[in-house]
Amino acid sequence: MPLVEISNLTKIYSQSESALGGTSRSRNEVRAVDDVSLDIHAGETLGLVGESGSGKSTLGRLILRLIEPTSGSIRFEGRDLLAASPGEMRRLRRDMQIIFQDPFASLDPRFRVEDIIAEPLLIHGSETAKGGIRARVVELLRAVGLDESILQRFPHEFSGGQRQRIGIARALALRPKFIVADEPVSALDVSVGAQIVNLLAQLQRDFGLTYLFISHSMPVVRYLSTRIAVMYRGKIVEIGSTDQITERPQHPYTRSLIEATPEVAV
Ligand SMILES: Nc1ncnc2c1ncn2[C@@H]1O[C@H](COP(=O)(O)OP(=O)(O)OP(=O)(O)O)[C@@H](O)[C@H]1O
Ligand SMILES: [Mg+2]
Question: Which fold has domain 4-260?
Answer without folding.
Answer: Rossmann fold (3.40.50)
